[in-house]
Amino acid sequence: MVRLADLPESDRDNMLKKVPALPAFPGRPWATGPALAARRVAIVTTAGLHVRGDRPFGGGAAGMDYRVIPGDAAAADLVMSHSSVNFDRSGFQQDWNVAFPLDRLKELVRDGMVGAVAGFHYSFMGAVSPVTNYEPKARELAGLLKRDGVDAVLLSPV
Question: Which of 63, 76, 122, 151 gives 133 a disulfide partner, CB atoms 3.0 to 4.6 angstroms apart?
């Protein structure tokens, strides 16, 4: 994945100009809960992933929609339809865990460090501007996660 320092100066400056416009949170939105070894964890990524055969992400879908990825999905089941000219897919093509670390999460469950893997995971398409466009779908997604008994989320921003 590209680092800010690796971008052309004009792209880097454009991204840094957006930082002051990011929303401020009046408090800490974190919640306490059980130890990680007792938690059910889902993955939420912005890699623009979807199950093969599901509808791909389009340019206008950024932040407005997400795709559901079953917990038993295999790497060969997933397609990346992220649509940015600045997006490097090579890491994902070599190891899907770069953007969607389901294998690593299952290993943590097997080793007793995490309680369980959620039945479903979710993918948005990144490159959303402004970032506040995620909020309505994020609230919807929070309800789905709650119904699935998820009490921890592994965020994989791409």
Answer: 63
pTM given for the model:
0.79
Measured CA angle at 63 (ends 62, 64), to 5 deg = 95
Tens-place pLDDT, residues 111-134? 999 999 999 999 988 766 666 777
Residue span of the structural domain in which 129 resides: 35-156
Structure-token pair, residue 61: 């879908």
- Outline where DSSP puts E strands in 52-119: 67-70, 78-80, 116-117
49 domain-assigned:
yes
CA 112, CA 129: separation in Å to the nearest integer? Answer: 39
Q: For the chain, what is the domain count?
A: 1
| 40: helix, strand or coil | strand
Q: Read off the amino acid at residue 87.
A: F
Half-sphere exposure for 95 (CA within 13 Å, toward CB): 7
Q: Identify the helix (H) or strand (E) that includes residue 13.
A: helix 9-18
